[in-house]
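R.M. (postdoc): so does anyone remember the format we settled on? I'll just put the structure tokens first.
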């Protein structure tokens, strides 16, 4: 089982592998937008975390989260298909939610493709609530389902 100690901030050398995984499991059928240069820019952005889950040198998954003053936006979260249902995505999400609590941010939002029933079930399982649907959100090719989660803060 993966643990939070297997999660770390991505480094520039991770950008190509993260971009390839995004292309394969998130952006299939769409114009490729999360390229290595975009991921490198995200890594350099003080308001964004790009995190990876790995076992040794094996990249198991990654996530990209943008932080605002009062709300965060989970931009991407993906795991290798061979790692699904092994706790990788849940551990990435827990690590990110920990950073939100430290930052005092109570709200996280995200979008997922309307045809991705597995992702929708994953987010509902982790306490996210569907808030709306956005027609043609993904480059006019597919609708999005938007989710929101309110986090409790320590001592709240």
């Amino acid at each position: 089982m993966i643990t939070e100690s297997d999660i770390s901030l991505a480094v520039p050398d991770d950008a190509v592998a993260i971009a390839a995984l995004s292309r394969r499991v998130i952006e299939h059928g769409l114009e490729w937008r999360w390229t290595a240069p975009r991921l490198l820019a995200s890594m350099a952005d003080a308001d964004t975390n790009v995190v990876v889950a790995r076992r040794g040198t094996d990249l198991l998954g990654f996530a990209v989260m943008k932080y605002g003053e009062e709300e965060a936006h989970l931009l991407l979260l993906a795991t290798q298909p061979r790692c699904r249902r092994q706790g990788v995505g849940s551990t990435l999400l827990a690590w990110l939610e920990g950073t939100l609590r430290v930052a005092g941010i109570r709200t996280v939002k995200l979008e997922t493709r309307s045809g991705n029933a597995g992702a929708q079930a994953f987010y509902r399982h982790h306490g996210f609530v569907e808030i709306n649907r956005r027609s043609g959100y993904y480059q006019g090719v597919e609708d999005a389902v938007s989710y929101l989660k309110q986090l409790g803060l320590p001592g709240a």
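R.M.: ...and that's the designed sequence above, right after the tokens. Also worth knowing: Residues 23 and 32 are 6 Å apart (CA to CA). The chain has one domain: 4-150.
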